[in-house]
Amino acid sequence: MTNHIRPTPDDLLRHARQYYELATLLKYDKEFEDKFTAAVEASDEGRLGSLLEPLGMRDVTISSIDTRAERGVCEHCWVWHGKLVCHPICM
After folding, report:
1. What are the residue ranges spanned by the domains of the chain?
2. Is the pTM of this model over 0.90?
3. Could you give the percent of the chain with pLDDT greater than 70?
4. CA angle in degrees (0–180, nearest 5) for 24-81-83
5. What value does the mean pLDDT take over residues 51-80?
6. Could you tell me if residue 74 is left (phi over 0), alpha (psi between -120 and 50 degrees) or otherwise beta?
7. What angle do CA 64, 57, 66 make, to 5 degrees?
8. 3-state DSSP of 20-75
9. φ and ψ at 33, to 5 degrees?
10. Dihedrals phi, psi of 66, to nearest 5 degrees
11. Residue 81: in which H helix or E strand, if any?
12. Residue 85 in 3-state DSSP?
C-alpha cells in the first residue's frame, strides 16, 4: 500500500524499473529519443504521456525551469532540453 507522504519501498522499486527502461530507450532507440525530445520541447504532455504510458509512467508534467513550484517528496524531476520533466513516484 502506498503512503502518500513519502515513497514506499514498492514505489521506489517501481520508479527504478521505470527509469531504467526510460534511460535504455533514450540511449539506444533514436526514434524514441527524437519523439521524447520533440514532446518535451513542445511542452506536449499528451504526446509525452503516450510515449511513457507503456512504461507505466502516468501524470508526467513538463514545465519551464523558471516557473516550476516546489517539488513534492513523491515526485522526481529532471531537466531535458531546457525543460523540467516531473513524474510522481508515489502511486
Report:
1. 9-88
2. no
3. 87
4. 110
5. 83
6. alpha
7. 10
8. HHHHHHHHHCHHHHHHHHHHHHCCCHHHHHHHHHHHCCCCCEEEECCCCCCCCCCE
9. -60, -45
10. -70, -25
11. none
12. strand
